Sequence to fold (357 residues):
Amino acid sequence: MRVGKVLLSGLAVAAGGVAALYRTRLQTAASIRKVARSEDGYGIYAMDVTYDYDIDRIERRGYKDSAGYVRAVLAESLPFVPVHIDVPSFGCSALQIQTVDGMWLTGRNYDFRRDTSMMLVHCTPKHGYESIAFAALDNIGVVNPTESLKKRLACLTAPFICLDGINSQGVTVSVLTLDSEPTVQHTGKPMLSTSLVMRLVLDRAATTDEAVELLGHYDMLALMGRDYHFFISDATGKAVTVEYDCNTPERTMTVTPINVITNFYIMYGQDVYLSEEAQKYGHGYDRFETILDILCREDGAYSRNTVWDCLQQSSQLPKPDDITSNTQWSVVYDHANLSADVVQRRHWEETHHFVVG
Fold:
């Protein structure tokens, strides 16, 4: 009898712990709302992340590959709930300019073959900076997250699959794919995966330099059989691309000051065309030149329209055999006003405005 009471008491404590664990997760799931939906059913949604996630806890769980990262993310965001997620492969373009009235703006196209709904992820971590970022819901198998509780719960993983964003300090970060062999560093530092870079920078970096310093404390693990680089910019106008040199065995982290980037190693520049090993350096040089031509033509007399022109001219139509085609969203981040103006899938006439805070 006494053993039974102890058992029941233990179960009650466990149930209470699970209930407490999921209270804020359910609040987060309940916050999901539709912002806009296109005629084909894909839409823009938004959520406020109120549960207390811990990116250090994800790192401490340890992972050595994509499957391990997924398990670590699910253990953090959805303990005890079976959900499948993928890690994306994609192509993109990104740039930063200063307008004639002194405003720093960063533009970014997210390109991916499969159509997807997108989620604005608003995070207010207890020990970090507030931010907004965008995640592709195709990576968790969701088109309309408001259809069911199961789909809402699946979106709790969204903070860890974001692809670009801006924080309350005016730092932006975007991830872009490369064609080289995936980076896997083994120097003894803690492991950091591609997708977790977004969350680390947005939560903890107040400047581009701080973001670079943060990345230097980790070994990089590129996910899903792809390689990647990162475009980071801040409110002072400092923009860099962080890459992991495919010509060194240790995949040395390299930082290049640059304000335009697509899907090739900027550290090797013209080698994309001139080297016999050009394929490993990446692709998208045509989009890079398109953006540079626009900037050169305007000769420093930049405006917000300049960024939109660059994004529109470098956007991509669907190509069934090209994984880095089909622009899913285009966004202009305003570093001073801490805002994001977003266009979904080349519907340039319809812009949606979001603000940090």
Q: What stands out?
A: The longest strand covers residues 91-98. Residues 146 and 152 are 6 Å apart (CA to CA).
